[in-house]
Amino acid sequence: MAGITHEIDDKNIVMAIKSDAVAATKELVEAAGLKKGQILVVGCSTSETLGEQIGSWSVPEVGQAIYDGINSVLEPLGIYLAAQCCEHLNRAIVVAREAVPFAEYVNAVPQPKAGGSFATACYKSLKDPVVLEEIKADAGMDIGETLIGMHLKRVAVPVRLKQKHIGNANVICARTRAKYIGGERTIYNKS
Fold it and tell me: Is 183 exposed, middle or buried (0-12, 13-18, 19+ CB in 10 A)?
């Protein structure tokens, strides 16, 4: 199976997955209160979006559709997309250089079966992409339970979306929250 990519004959499936990605991204951006200049990290298994086992059914066209859907929401808002590669690239991150001008870059270029179809689509589509070992993003979307938590700022909290799937893959989202000395800020009713 290593090195083999697949194609989808039914373009309606690809369009539905893209539509799901748009809906989930819009919902997450709003719920997390993401602002211009912040970073959303996304891990994605195209295999799972198609109902297959993670890492077993790499589909570049689906990776591109998910990128296109997510980016159509983020780019107009000035929010940066960071794509987590699969374990073959040690979960490295693809992001636009502009988002991380002082980061230490690594020498890697994702491929569909070595980095993943989604990370590959991001690398090919982003203006001036770079690859990093890690990032501390403001929010994250995990498409297919790919474990993005290591790339979120500390004190992440779950975000419950109505859009719970992209294709057949579960969507798990989180945002980070400000840390306050002594815990969460509490609002008291003074009446």
Answer: exposed
CB atoms within 10 A of CB 108: 20
Q: What is the mean pLDDT of residues 32-42?
A: 96
Instruction: Give 41: exposed, middle or buried? Use CB within 10 Å, 0-12, 13-18, 19+.
Output: buried
Provide the angle, in degrees to the nearest 10, between the axes of the packed helices 60-77 and 117-125.
50
163, pLDDT greater than 60: yes
Q: Are strands 105-106 and 129-132 parallel, antiparallel or unpaired?
A: antiparallel
Residues 6+ apart with CB under 8 A from 131: 85, 89, 92, 93, 94, 105, 106, 107, 108, 109, 110, 123
In sequence order, which residues have a C-beta less than 8 Å from that of residue 57 and are 6 or more positions away?
Answer: 6, 46, 47, 50
Distance between CA atoms of residues 180 and 164, nearest Å: 30
Query: Comparing C-alpha atoms, which of 80, 96, 89, 92 is closest to residue 129?
Result: 96
Q: Rounded to an integer, what distance in angstroms lies between the CA atom of residue 37 and that of residue 67?
A: 18
Could you tell me which residues come within 8 angstroms of residue 179 by beta carbon, excluding any fewer than 6 positions away?
Answer: 154, 155
Residue of 174, 149, 147 lying closest to 160 (CA atoms): 174
* C-beta separation of 46 from 87 below 8 A: no
Binned at pLDDT 50, 70 and 90, residue 58 comes out as confident
